[in-house]
Amino acid sequence: xxxxxxxxxxxxxxxxxxxxxxxxxxxxxxxxxxxxxxxxxxxxxxxxxxxxxxxxxxxxxxxxxxxxxxxxxxxxxxxxxxxxxxxxxxxxxxxxxxxxxxxxxxxxxxxxxxxxxxxxxxxxxxxxxxxxxxxxxxxxxxxxxxxxxxxxxxxxxxxxxxxxxxxxxxxxxxxxxxxxxxxxxxxxxxxxxxxxxxxxxxxxxxxxxxxxxxxxxxxxxxxxxxxxxxxxxxxxxxxxxxxxxxxxxxxxxxxxxxxxxxxxxxxxxxxxxxxxxxxxxxxxxxxxxxxxxxxxxxxxxxxxxxxxxxxxxxxxxxxxxxxxxxxxxxxxxxxxxxxxxxxxxxxxxxxxxxxxxxxxxxxxxxxxxxxxxxxxxxxxxxxxxxxxxxxxxxxxxxxxxxxxxxxxxxxxxxxxxxxxxxxxxxxxxxxxxxxxxxxxxxxxxxxxxxxxxxxxxxxxxxxxxxxxxxxxxxxxxxxxxxxxxxxxxxxxxxxxxxxxxxxxxxxxxxxxxxxxxxxxxxxxxxxxxxxxxxxxxxxxxxxxxxx
Length: 547
What we know:
Blueprint: H1 10-20, H2 36-48, H3 69-80, E1 85-90, H4 93-106, E2 110-115, H5 122-136, E3 140-146, H6 152-161, E4 167-172, H7 182-187, H8 189-192, E5 200-203, E6 207-211, E7 226-229, E8 232-237, H9 239-251, E9 256-258, H10 259-262, H11 293-301, H12 304-309, E10 316-318, E11 320-324, H13 340-348, E12 354-359, H14 365-377, E13 381-387, H15 395-402, H16 405-410, E14 414-418, E15 439-442, E16 445-449, E17 453-457, H17 463-468, E18 472-477, H18 479-488, E19 497-502, E20 508-514, E21 517-521, H19 529-540
Parallel strand pairs: 2-3, 3-4, 7-15, 12-13, 13-14
Antiparallel strand pairs: 1-8, 1-10, 2-5, 4-9, 5-6, 6-8, 11-18, 12-16, 14-19, 16-17, 17-18, 19-20, 20-21
């Protein structure tokens, strides 16, 4: 049995779906998801990459046809490693923002972005502004968003954004009721429960960013209350074409609707896109860099543009495999064997030495626990880092994890739980960081198998990622990265996390460092009686398949 074997409860699924079956027929979506204008824009993108002697009149007149410095610099490296791909980790949220913003400024042909969440906050509006500026100079922008976290106000921003002739916005698996969104849970829960969790941003079909981060202040280091410790990876080389093809399949799907087919312009709001960016000040809407302190500093400190042009980004070149769920997973129209979890099982198999898992949401289920126990008892060194109760942003997920801790610990699995107080200053050499001013929550999704295989992407080790949502990621075959990830989970982590242990009498203990002293908690830190009761009740419910 593979370590990634996770199966949903068919009985629970049937009961949940049965509750809404009678009302699901009320949903009506537009018959034509793609408007002629956005279809033509997609054709223009294709024309940009035809050989120069075969380019047709449909190509954007303002988009350049010759290689830019960026394309030339990347192409030169690709030519040296024609069968390999290069990667460079993006650790901090500030660098994640700067990379996306600066690469948007450097792009000259097209930008394709695909995200589960794009918040209507400062980070979201700044990056929309950057994309708008790119479109103004002739770059074709395609933005594909999942609909689960959108709202009526953001709909209006996206509608104005898509009014640019070089921009198209599509919403995948959209909610029917745009303003009274709660109504969707009554009329269409079975359908809207399945979401596109993919996250990627690709520039000129040459360089891409994928990983765990969505677009929003808490993901990009500018939220004073909550920060996500996460990991992205900058990619060039052979793997970029696979990511581009995956985007194209989602973009062209009949599940992806042009924003104009779903939303009507509100007469009471401005029709000017830049004027409507209400989270930005006047100087932020047109200036080259934002007056917002964190983002301005990130842009000023980043040298990614110069480093890319001068080939100074320390890409490590290796063999990679790109993995992605088929878009048909959202409608259950493709075999389960095509799911990313099955691809992982095929490519990774079972570890023979080590397995290190870093997952913000860790819900292993009974089958997954049995597999991990078998591996541990056979001598495999298994270490897991997930969120503590105080750090998690989804309490229900924690309830789907805590019941398995004693079983895993008795088998010899090491478990670490990130503290909400984890700070960047004490994690300088780790693969995840967050600002110390606010509460920290782990959001990274990565694991290392044996001496050379590392997965980085959007996939959490939980049933929702395995069976319900669509996901994407890359397997990087690199012993250095694998060694770094395995080594990150050690006693050095105890300033930032608890190590959960089980005593001889079967009681759990949380070991950590506080003020340079070892501290042991005999009960779960920051969990009061009401929390404990609620978590216990939740753990009894047959909802693991939904988490």
